Amino acid sequence: MTDRTTDGQQEVTRRAVLRSGAGVAAAGATTALSAPPAAARTRPGRRPAGLPTEVAGVPLPDGEVARRAVAFARRVSSETLFNHVLRSYVFGTLLVDHPEVRYDRELGFVAAVLHDLGLVEAFRTPSERFEVDGADAARRFLERLRVPAERVEVVWDAIALHTSAGIAARKRPEIALVCAGSGVDFTGHGLERIPSDAVTEVLDAFPRRQFKQVAVDTMLSLCRTKPMGELMHPFAEVGRRHLPGFPVPTVEDLVLTAPFTE
Predict the structure, then answer these.
(1) Is 58 helix (H, G, I), strand (E, B) or coil?
(2) CA–CA separation, 123 vs 147, rounded Å?
(3) Residues 76/10, Cβ–Cβ less than 8 Å
(4) 15-256 belongs to which CATH class?
(5) Most buried by CB count within 10 Å: which residue of 30, 83, 102, 229?
(6) Which residues contact 69 (CB under 8 A, 6 or more apart)?
(7) First and final CA of the chain: distance in angstroms?
(8) What's the whole-model pTM score?
(9) Which residues pair with 58 in a beta bridge?
């Protein structure tokens, strides 16, 4: 989830921390969009660019915007982060894909591929949540490609809401797909709904590359460099656990210090 590891090997023993953000997102989105996963299970072929044509029966879109998004994400991301966003697309598709669910596969793919740009240092702002930083970076990228504004807005919403399951699950399928897929890959919550052979194929195609430790290192990096961006964000719990004197108040602190007389 980051473009570098910075903090050594820390063991996170509180599963609740890792489940508090995207884990909740996965739970909400997968419950709201429960549907049988795609049945086809074929081994992927290889494109000249090095991506499979499909993974676990899920085709990877190959339109011009999709190709440009993949090239961009690959260029700015570590292998760990790049593999995560691709796993997110496949897992999300396996969870939402159903004959009765109509959606734009390329739009969902582009949103998934770009959904963690806010974790890349080049796109971080001093105070915004990483989801908003990523959504803004994706918007700028797509606008340079002259993607229609209404499509850009779907991608923006999918990225900005990908850790907010209660909202994303009620939005259009492309948005719910990114939320569900990224949440499953982040915490494993909902992974039991995906057949084990499909999971194996996804992990073979896009290996995790120490994803758990990189994820924790990234959360700590955000807490160190832009702590107020984590205000009322689940990542703040990681900062409070690992960083002495972490300055971000809790929700309780905010309520009790509100400037009212009672």
Answers:
(1) strand
(2) 20
(3) no
(4) mainly alpha
(5) 30
(6) 109, 110, 113, 114, 141
(7) 43
(8) 0.81
(9) 55
